[in-house]
Amino acid sequence: MNFTDTLQANPIFETLAQQADALGVRAYVVGGFVRDLLLKRPSKDIDVVCVGSGIALAEAVGKAMKAPVAVFPSFGTAMVKVTLGGQVWEVEFVGARKESYRSDSRKPIVEDGTLEDDQNRRDFTINAMGIQLNRSSATGVFGDLLDPFDGQKDLKRKIIRTPLDPLVTFSDDPLRMMRAIRFASQLNFDIEPATFDAIVQMNERIGIVSRERITDELNKIILSPTPSYGFKLLYHAGLLDRIFPELVALKGVETIEGRGHKDNFYHTLQVLDNIASRTKSTPELNAQELWLRWAALLHDIAKPATKRYDKKVGWTFHGHEDLGARWVPGIFRTMKLPLHESMRFVQKLVRLHLRPIALTKEQITDSALRRLLVDAGDDLDGLMALCRADITSKNYEKVQKHLRNFDRVEQKLIDLEERDKLRSFQPVITGELIMETFGLPPSKEVGELKTFIREAILDGDIPNTLETAYPFLLEEGRKRNLTVVKPLELNLP
Fold this sequence. Notes:
This protein has 493 residues and is an alpha+beta fold. It is built from 25 helices and 13 strands. It has helices at residues 4-8, 11-23, 32-39, 54-65, 115-120, 151-157, 166-172, 175-187, 193-202, 211-222, 227-237, 240-243, 245-248, 264-276, 287-298, 303-306, 320-335, 341-352, 355-359, 366-376, 380-389, 396-420, 431-438, 444-458, 466-479; strands at 26-30, 45-51, 69-72, 77-84, 87-95, 97-100, 109-112, 130-132, 145-146, 159-160, 190-191, 308-310, 314-316. Strands 3-4-5-2-1-8-9 form a seven-stranded mixed beta sheet. A two-stranded antiparallel ribbon has the order 6-7.
């Protein structure tokens, strides 16, 4: 198979060929770009292997294309970023090499090698293909496909398989076990039985891999089209219990007096899939989508800790939303996930995920709606998406009934927001104003007065205006025998 026409359509490859020939080195496009080309998937990340100095070739290409070059001498690699038609292409260069590993480390002993050595060290057959870049080479023709391990065949069969003995492949680099499952989840491929058996045998070796690398692969599984597939593979391979035991703790059903509860592990995966089905999974998915999916994963995470059996009502999980929200920072810290607004977004959705559901089961009051609008704020849309995804009954009519109730709640929220503008709600009566008015220091009483005013506004007793709220505050102050030491000057009647 030859890709000459495809490569010639992109000036990067013409420059690569010219500079490789000028330096007298054999160069090849390898790895994911070749795989995605055969799968007709878009890719702007190009890996180039050359038999010689990858850094020298990178510098020559960067100079020819007037593009910046980043050199990483410790790793023997270099990166050139080329902008074409408003798109940025990242071209990574490395010299062909062979690697050997110690049993207690993922850091290889690296030596210069041949193209064959380089292809032998690749993780999977579908990533071990290469395309010839040289025009003047006795070893091949520009655009020729090199496929020593039948990667094309495995692509057609939709199989993930290692080029060499999978036990050796995974022992050398245990992260490849996560990568196998990630590719299966992203591409909807099967893992070849011997390869999967090797993951099961080697799963304890994941312990030498850094948490950051594990979480990077986990995030890619979470962002795949049907993430439950990847999580089920992680579970059956024995990896999930090693990297995310809190999720595995959700699994199982306990029955007392003939009364059971749903398996919260599979329920959680269904909620995650429901969230994923809202969007087409692409590399360009925005960051907020990742955190919405994390909220789906964690929304019931504290159910095992709050599970109780009540003879009257059966199984209960009271307070799991609050406890789960308290667990979120610790889970993010363990996973080496960011602890800023992304974590707070997930924490908020976990804490609030039952609130809209409760509103569909009772007579909806404006007061309850106001509180939800204020508490959810700008994250209301994400919260409502999570709550819709949380409906996983196998009873179609029951699901449709719940969804219609959500439609009703959402319309009332829209109407109330248009009227009261509560998403960015801040009471006009601040703690500072209360302290100044009554000459109070920071204290519990100041907090009580703030809460009193806030609740009156949310209950609809008074509008959120100084003209109404301030006299209301003064009246409450009189009831508490507080003296006004510095009144606010208002044009009050």
